[in-house]
């Protein structure tokens, strides 16, 4: 199935590893020009080299998504390098999992306002392109009650924000959708660490997934590529859970 991403200009925040990288790589493999950012400069360099193997234009930049000026500067730099923006994927997370001032601040500054500010910055470029797509990455923790109170609350806000942006940006021909991933395991990620450091938590979570395994980043990447493509041209305001039935 040709998703029609060839020549599209895709920007992914939090794109150096895990879900963000899988989305960027899937889009690059479909022929899109891709820009990614993350806090770690070293991680960006490695990710950019891997993305260049697909043969298209690739841009990478270190950026603290929680810094409004740095984030706006990154979006503009990505647009300048790619020649515009057709797709924005908001995938930042501070993983503020503690129910205290620090946990809530990380969640609000990065998981929520990182989405808001990146969309503000990208909107003029999307409008100049004649429309496009925004994809927000939330979590199944935002779909219902969660033991990670602060994390779940801000991810729920991202789902509501997706609906509101879908409504208000539709006249500009900008579609806005969301993915709520379940537990996704990859080297260096949250679940890989819990497997080593908190095996009881890992095993309980694994037992809650009907398919009997953790998800893979590329399984999110494939759904993401569809949602930002022209193949999903009549889909907006939706949140798709990609969790192997974990939230059932």
UniProtKB/TrEMBL annotation:
KW Oxidoreductase (keyword) present: yes
Keywords on record: Oxidoreductase
A Pfam entry, by short name: adh_short_C2
Highest taxon, organism lineage: Bacteria
UniProt KW Oxidoreductase keyword: yes
One Gene Ontology term of the molecular function aspect: oxidoreductase activity
Family: Belongs to the short-chain dehydrogenases/reductases (SDR) family.
Protein name: 3-oxoacyl-ACP reductase
Organism of origin: Thalassobaculum fulvum
């Amino acid at each position: 199935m040709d998703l029609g991403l060839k020549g599209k200009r895709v920007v992914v925040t939090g794109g150096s590893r895990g879900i963000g990288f899988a989305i960027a790589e899937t889009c690059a493999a479909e022929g899109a020009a891709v820009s990614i950012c993350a806090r770690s400069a070293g991680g960006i360099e490695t990710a950019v080299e891997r993305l260049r193997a697909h043969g298209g234009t690739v841009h990478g930049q270190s950026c603290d998504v929680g810094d409004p000026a740095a984030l706006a500067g990154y979006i503009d730099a990505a647009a300048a390098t790619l020649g515009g923006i057709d797709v924005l994927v908001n995938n930042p997370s501070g993983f503020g999992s503690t129910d205290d001032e620090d946990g809530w601040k990380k969640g609000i500054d990065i998981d929520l306002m990182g989405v808001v500010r990146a969309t503000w910055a990208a909107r003029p470029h999307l409008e100049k392109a004649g429309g496009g797509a925004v994809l927000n990455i939330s979590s199944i923790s935002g779909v219902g009650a969660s033991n990670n109170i602060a994390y779940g609350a801000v991810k729920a806000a991202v789902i509501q924000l997706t609906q509101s942006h879908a409504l208000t940006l539709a006249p500009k021909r900008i579609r806005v959708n969301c993915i709520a991933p379940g537990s996704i395991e990859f080297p260096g990620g949250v679940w890989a660490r819990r497997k080593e450091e908190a095996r009881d938590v890992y095993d309980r979570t694994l037992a809650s997934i009907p398919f009997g395994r953790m998800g893979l980043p590329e399984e999110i990447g494939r759904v993401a590529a569809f949602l930002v493509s022209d193949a999903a041209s009549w889909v907006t305001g939706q949140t798709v859970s990609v969790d192997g039935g974990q939230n059932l």
